[in-house]
Design brief:
By secondary structure, this protein is an alpha+beta fold. The chain has four helices and 14 strands. The relative contact order is 0.16.
């Protein structure tokens, strides 16, 4: 019921502020791409005003999330996302990739976590493995494609960055990391 948005992570309440236009464009592009591709399936893409409740009672507002559980109109949060997307901003990147990452990775239903750079064509795709460990793959370049195996769909990087002037980084394709 509050007009401001707050996150609770690691026992600390943080007020959320507005984002830059490039950030919002990238997040909107991802949401539209997912919502369109998921139409007719049991899964639904949700945008930044949808809270995620972590396994330990934390609350976050990812830029985009997908849940495959039917929702009542009066529900206030999602506690079973299969996919979470964070578009990184210079002021929040460290927090998103550390404290919030730990919150997300503790959610049993989460299969993939996506970190999207807003100033360059670069995405980190983090996937839960069969042994419950996590593996990162970096998808780089506007000619590359982001494969979201948890939803059995792909999204071209050019679609993610449509309308945003981004730097090309390295070579197109995916690079694995730990």
């Amino acid at each position: 019921r509050q007009t401001e948005r707050h996150e609770l992570v690691g026992g600390v309440v943080r007020m959320m502020v507005g984002a830059a236009m490039g950030h919002n464009t990238v997040a909107d592009n991802i949401h539209v791409a997912l919502a369109t591709r998921l139409r007719g399936s049991p899964c639904r893409a949700w945008r930044a005003d949808t809270r995620v409740r972590g396994a330990n009672g934390e609350f976050t507002y990812p830029d985009v999330l997908v849940s495959c559980t039917p929702r009542r109109p009066d529900e206030l949060f999602v506690d079973d996302p299969v996919l979470v997307v964070e578009v990184l901003s210079p002021s929040t990147a460290e927090h998103d990739q550390t404290e919030k990452r730990w919150v997300y990775q503790a959610i049993p239903s989460l299969r993939q976590l996506v970190y999207v750079a807003s100033g360059e064509a670069k995405v980190e795709l983090v996937t839960r493995q069969a042994d419950e460990s996590w593996r990162s793959v970096f998808v780089v370049g506007l000619d590359a494609t982001l494969a979201l195996d948890c939803l059995d769909l792909t999204v071209p990087m050019a679609e993610i960055y449509d309308g945003v002037d981004v730097a090309e980084t390295g070579t197109a394709g995916a690079q694995a990391s730990g």
